Amino acid sequence: MEPFKPLDAVAAPMDGAHIDTDQIVPARFIQKPRANNFGDYLFLDVRRDATGQRRPDFVLNQPAYAGAQVLVAGPNFGCGSSREHAVWALVDGGIRAVIAPGFGDIFHANALKNGLLPVVLPEASVRALLDGLLANPGARVRVDLQTQTVSGPGLASAPFPIDAFSRHCLLQGLDEIAYTLGYLAGIEAFEHRMDT
User: Fold this and answer.
1) For the segment 121-138, what is each residue's pLDDT rounded down to a tens digit?
2) How far is Cα of residue 182 from the mean position of the Cα atoms in its chain?
3) Which of 47, 72, 106, 189 is most buried, judging by how many CB atoms fall within 10 Å of its CB?
4) What does the alpha-carbon distance between residue 154 and residue 151 come to, in Å, rounded to a whole number?
5) d(Cα 11, Cα 159) in Å, to the nearest integer?
6) What SS3 class is residue 70?
7) Which residues contact 105 (CB under 8 A, 6 or more apart)?
């Protein structure tokens, strides 16, 4: 994982509640290996029509949001099935943070394990940010994990919670295996003591 540095990026407003993992990545792609670029499948069925043409009204197809690295959405983002592929699609699609009033529990856990920052803000703060982004297409949002704050159009600065372990791993760019390997010398010393 890449360390999560302060992010100042274009934010795409997805003004809707209950955006589920089936919308984020269609089920027909979940048999593909992780080596695939899951960004190619990101919101595929809502991003393209039946002929494969891009839908101009879908937010990520609009020129103002090209290269967006932040999504701002309504409540319960990532609900539905437990597929980790939804997080892979967002990460491979260039998204580094999703801001919402709440997330599906499994999606939230998968996001943290894969380098995607799920930012939980009060609904009123998300609404103000969504309204600011809708009024200013292509506007940028700043997400600072070090200070645990978000700012952008319509939102001066808002703090967000995150548990200390997840914050540490994201800041350092560590998945759980890399974190454990940081204790390798101690683990090996323990095993050596147990063998003798």
Assistant:
1) 999 999 999 999 999 999
2) 25
3) 72
4) 8
5) 18
6) strand
7) none
The pair of three-digit structure tokens given for residue 194, joined into one six-digit string: 């147990």
Identify the band that residue 105 occupies on the pLDDT scale cut at 50, 70 and 90. very high
The CA distance from 175 to 194, in Å, is 27
DSSP per-residue letters across 152-192: ETTEEEEE----HHHHHHHHHT--HHHHHHTTHHHHHHHHH
Q: How many CB atoms lie within 10 A of CB 179?
A: 13
- HSE-up of 22 (CA within 13 Å, CB side)? 3
Q: Is 183's pLDDT higher than 70? A: no
In this prediction, residue 70 has a pLDDT band, given cuts at 50, 70 and 90, of very high
Which of residues 30 and 63 earns the better pLDDT score? 63
Give residue for tokens 């319960």: 76
pTM greater than 0.85: yes
Ranges of H-type helices in the chain: 21-24, 44-47, 85-92, 105-113, 123-135, 164-172, 176-181, 184-195
Residue 52, both tokens: 């494969």
Question: What span, in angstroms and rounded, lies between the C-alpha atoms of 162 and 29?
Answer: 31
* Measured distance CA(72)–CA(60) in Å, rounded: 12
